[in-house]
Specification:
The chain has helices at residues 2-41, 104-140, 146-180, 224-235, 381-430, and strands spanning 44-50, 54-67, 72-75, 80-85, 92-93, 98-102, 181-183, 188-190, 200-201, 206-211, 216-223, 244-248, 257-263, 273-280, 292-309, 314-316, 319-325, 331-335, 337-342, 345-350, 357-359, 372-376. It is elongated. By secondary structure, it is α+β, with helices and mostly antiparallel strands. Helix 2 (104-140) runs antiparallel to helix 3. The protein is built from five helices and 22 strands. The longest helix is centred in the last third of the chain and has 50 residues, at 381-430. The chain has a six-stranded antiparallel β-barrel.
């Protein structure tokens, strides 16, 4: 009898324990759901900005080729033997340096002859002037005829013409003598000589090329919208020289800064672009004419646009989107149409309006309907982007450390598993 009662007691006790466990098990999900609900309803603090129209600066770049507008091809202006070359190809020459000699002695002789011709003509003129004066006095005394006097005047005029002709010939000879010495019209780097010393050159023969490399110019084409916005900016009082520009080479070998110095006044009908020109100082010759570059214009503005920090954008099913807060501070996804990128800012063409409150903090974990506690945004989109990048790098570093730690633990565990059989054998031997 006692045995039966004992069994019943044990059964009742077991049933009681089971009921208690079931009750406890039922209570845990309830508490878990309650906690989850509390966490879900707790607003998430995140930076929010109220959208307003603004003028925003762009960083635009355009393809172009470097050029030297002062590049000069040296050409012989006289005929003769090329007697001397007074430079080494590839060196830098200064304006006014003598580069070639083309029979200067021959042209010096021609100058001397023209000087003698001028002196002879001047002597003839002096005699003709004295004769005309004497005939004028004799005519007043009726000692000579009018015809003789007129002939004296004509001889004086012929002598004057002869002096003028001789003077012009001397000037021409001096010009040829100057051309016999070919000098540098600009400073720059000189090319290989196209004609060897001792060869006969004619007027028009190309000799060499001088290329100034400091400064350099870049001509490029602006899309008409950029040109119109830039012209609008200039009309507000901004000087064209204050529009800063920079060069970017494909290999990143140089980074030169300059300024815009020309903006065209007409649109090309075939390309819908406007021509522009920028100048760059290149004292070290780090870049050369003919190189392909990209020209960056700093300070080019877009007026009266809507923009958000680029970090505020996410990708939704319908395309790029931002999260906009409703009246209850709940995040709602809003599909937007993207415009131009302005550094850390993204211009938006459509999808938001003035007064919308947009989440500009990291929206990657946000979901539609998430309750948000708005935090003020100081307007520094670049700092916000930098903060996000640093956070991502930190997470990446932590993930790598956890992975390395897990790999180390796995290796230790594998080593411990290998030792278990020997340990078990020791225990058996001990027993």
């Amino acid at each position: 009898m006692k045995t039966m009662l004992s069994r019943v007691s044990r059964l009742a006790l077991a049933m009681g324990v089971s009921v208690m466990l079931v009750a406890c098990g039922d209570d845990q999900p309830a508490q878990s759901e309650k906690t989850a609900g509390e966490q879900k309803s707790k607003p998430r603090p995140v930076e929010v900005t109220t959208i307003e129209r603004q003028d925003i600066a762009l960083d635009k770049s355009y393809p172009a080729f470097l050029r030297s507008d002062d590049e000069v091809t040296l050409v012989a202006r006289v005929t003769g033997l090329l007697e001397k070359r007074l430079f080494e190809p590839g060196e830098t020459v200064e304006k006014g340096d003598t580069l070639y000699n083309i029979e200067p002695d021959r042209y010096q002789t021609a100058v001397n002859q023209r000087k003698a011709d001028l002196q002879s003509a001047q002597a003839q003129l002096s005699r003709a002037q004295r004769d005309s004066q004497r005939f004028e006095r004799l005519l007043s005394q009726n000692s000579v005829s009018r015809q003789q006097y007129d002939q004296a005047l004509a001889d004086r005029r012929v002598a004057q013409a002869s002096v003028a002709q001789a003077s012009a010939a001397l000037e021409s000879a001096n010009i040829d003598l100057n051309y016999a010495e070919v000098t540098a019209p600009v400073s720059g780097m000189i090319s290989l000589s196209m004609v060897n010393v001792g060869n006969l050159v004619n007027s028009g023969t190309e000799l060499a090329t001088i290329t100034p490399i400091d400064p350099l110019e870049v001509r490029f084409q602006l899309p008409q919208r950029d040109a119109f916005e830039l012209r609008r900016q200039l009309s507000d009082g901004t000087k064209i020289e204050s529009i800063r520009t920079s060069l970017e080479l494909p290999d990143g070998a140089a980074d030169l800064t300059g300024h815009l110095d020309f903006l065209g006044a007409r649109v090309d009908e075939t390309t819908s672009t406007v021509q522009a020109n920028a100048s760059f100082k290149n004292p070290d010759g780090s870049v050369l004419p003919g190189q392909y570059v990209r020209v960056h214009i700093e300070g080019l503005k877009r007026y009266d646009v809507l923009a958000v920090p680029e970090i505020a954008l996410t990708q939704g099913l319908m395309g790029p989107q931002v999260f906009v807060l409703d009246d209850d501070n709940a995040a709602r996804a809003r599909t937007v149409e993207l415009g131009e990128l302005a550094g850390p800012w993204q211009v938006l063409r459509d999808g938001i309006q003035d007064g919308d409150r947009v989440v500009v903090g990291d929206p990657s974990d946000l979901k539609p309907g998430t309750s948000v506690k708005p935090q003020p945004f100081d307007g520094d989109a670049e700092a916000l982007m930098q903060e996000k990048q640093e956070e991502q790098q930190e997470k990446k570093k932590e993930a790598q450390e956890e992975q390395q730690q897990a790999q180390g633990e796995g290796a230790n565990k594998a080593s411990g598993t290998d030792d278990e059989p020997s340990a078990a054998s020791d225990e058996e031997d001990a027993s």
